[in-house]
């Protein structure tokens, strides 16, 4: 169904999605093609469907976008693209300016509040249809270039914390989109899921997390740079006490500190030397016990020579 001819015009044809996870809309007038939108359900930390990952709306798909938001009880929209980047349209403007209305098919969308922060804008959008209305939050993260990553991991962690708080306070699906709905979208969702693992003091498996995302939507986390950025964000989170709950550590052996105690407070060069020494030890097989401990806490990508080493910058 995703590659049926009426649907090709609705989608980025390089990102054909699996029918098993695609979001389906209510059929209109007996036309089965009207159930299609380039969007996928994504499972969260709990294993339940928590997100919708989708491409940025095109002019011709705006009505379908709002049908999806309304039908599937979306409570938060997270936008991680600009409307235009490098003189190329990445996303059609699908919501109105503050205190204005936008009429799209059967919907009237009104922006009732707008708060600007250094890296994102927080809006409240109210959707009216047939005398009924629904409210949805809209977070627009504005410092994320296409195929790239934000320069600052600290701001990203702050944004993820704000996003997660809203998700937990207001039950409903969270819709995330960039332009194609895979690169930046997948990276943000991966970071959010893995931060929850940190807070619950669970094993962090970045490779498998990204792999599972790609099983649900093609090309989630699109570039090597984005994959590396996930590691950088999680390293900073582990160094920040605000992202760790010491009360949940049942014994000193579970503390994350031994992994990083020799890495903090050193120059980048000293960190590189220490990492290389540790890698040589792994290759000789003498670090197996420590690797096993790290895998329980942080990641489990094998073989050791292919594991990414985490550095603080």
UniProtKB/TrEMBL annotation:
Pfam family, any one: Y_phosphatase
E.C. number(s) listed in UniProt: 3.1.3.48
Any GO BP: motor neuron axon guidance
PROSITE patterns, per database record: TYR_PHOSPHATASE_1 (PS00383), TYR_PHOSPHATASE_2 (PS50056), TYR_PHOSPHATASE_PTP (PS50055)
SUPFAM superfamilies: (Phosphotyrosine protein) phosphatases II (SSF52799)
The Tyrosine specific protein phosphatases domain, residue ranges: 157-228
Gene3D superfamilies noted in UniProt: Protein tyrosine phosphatase superfamily (3.90.190.10)
InterPro entries reported in the protein's UniProt record: Prot-tyrosine_phosphatase-like, Protein-Tyr_Phosphatase, PTP_cat, Tyr_Pase_AS, Tyr_Pase_cat, Tyr_Pase_dom
Keyword Hydrolase in annotation: yes
Domain Tyrosine-protein phosphatase: start-end pairs: 7-237
CDD domains, per the entry: PTPc
GO molecular function, one term: protein tyrosine phosphatase activity
Keyword annotations of the record: Hydrolase, Protein phosphatase
Family recorded in the similarity comment: Belongs to the protein-tyrosine phosphatase family.
Matching PANTHER family: PROTEIN-TYROSINE-PHOSPHATASE, RECEPTOR-TYPE TYROSINE-PROTEIN PHOSPHATASE
Protein name, entry field: protein-tyrosine-phosphatase
């Amino acid at each position: 169904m995703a590659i049926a001819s009426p649907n090709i015009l609705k989608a980025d044809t390089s990102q054909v999605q699996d029918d098993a996870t695609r979001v389906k809309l209510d059929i209109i007038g007996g036309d089965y093609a009207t159930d299609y939108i380039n969007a996928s359900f994504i499972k969260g930390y709990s294993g339940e469907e928590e997100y919708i990952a989708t491409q940025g709306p095109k002019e011709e798909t705006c009505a379908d976008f709002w049908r999806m938001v309304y039908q599937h009880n979306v409570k938060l929209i997270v936008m991680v693209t600009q409307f235009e980047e490098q003189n190329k349209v990445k996303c059609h403007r699908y919501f109105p300016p503050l205190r204005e209305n936008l009429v799209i098919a059967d919907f009237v969308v009104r922006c009732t509040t707008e708060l600007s922060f250094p890296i994102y804008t927080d809006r409240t959008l109210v959707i009216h249809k047939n005398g009924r209305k629904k409210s949805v939050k809209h977070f627009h993260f504005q410092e994320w270039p296409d195929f790239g990553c934000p320069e600052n991991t600290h701001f990203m962690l702050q944004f993820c914390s704000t996003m997660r708080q809203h998700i937990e306070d207001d039950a409903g699906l969270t819709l995330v989109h960039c332009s194609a709905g895979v690169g930046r979208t997948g990276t943000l969702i991966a970071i959010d899921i893995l931060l929850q693992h940190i807070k619950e003091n669970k094993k962090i498996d970045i490779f498998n997390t990204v792999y599972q995302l790609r099983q649900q939507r093609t090309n989630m986390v699109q570039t090597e740079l984005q994959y590396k950025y996930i590691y950088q964000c999680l390293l900073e989170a582990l160094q920040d006490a605000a992202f760790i709950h010491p009360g949940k550590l049942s014994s000193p052996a579970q503390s994350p500190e031994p992994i990083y105690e020799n890495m903090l407070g050193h120059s980048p060069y000293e960190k590189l030397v220490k990492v290389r020494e540790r890698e040589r030890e792994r290759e000789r097989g003498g670090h197996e016990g420590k690797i096993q401990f790290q895998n329980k806490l942080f990641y489990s990508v094998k073989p050791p020579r292919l594991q990414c080493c985490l550095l603080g910058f």
